[in-house]
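Need tokens for this chain, all 226 residues.
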Amino acid sequence: MALVKFGAGITEIRGSIGGVTFSRSYSGPVMKEKPIPPRRRRGTQPKNRSIIGFLSRQWGGLTGAQRDEWKTWALNHPEPDRFGGAFIMSGSNAYSKLNFQAVRLFGMGNLQNSPPSDPPAANLYSLVVASGSVNPGDITLDWTAAGTGSADDVVEVQRAGPFQSEGLVEVHNQFRHIASPAGNLTTLTVEDLVEGFWYWFRLRYVDQYGQTTAFLTGQATPMVTP
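Here are the structure tokens for all 226 residues:
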């Protein structure tokens, strides 16, 4: 909702046009637009919400000793906050965070009642995103890993776009999961993209226990038809 300042000769506007409604409030003339609700029956949101609800119920069934294990894990794995400091999760937050990734990417068989004892087998530290070299509409992702990636883990790849121009910053709220190559692979070709448009990509290593590395990002336009 926004306050309206009328120009010369205009004293009042009421009614709706183009989805915007003009009216009056105690503050004066206002204009407001009804938000478009998300389509909760589509996409990944229903699945994600059901996983989170399931994990909340499962946490209630853990023993006191198991809950203490998760609390200890959280204390030893602080998360960076937006102010350059560290944020300590609760035991239930840590349980849900790791198990959400494990169940989402690997299935219910990877639900863990106790936290992992080892870090991920690999860490990703370099990503090159470039136009493909074989077919029009292709973009190739090549990354480098420190450590030995395991075939039991995955590299989660997400995409945002198409965009009409190159972006200066990543559009975090528009990334969507598109692929999960095995954790011992270091390249992926994404096909059937719109030629002449820009795409953002990001990827991270996710082990079978739900532990993740930081995202690496990059952007490119796909190979065009000669």
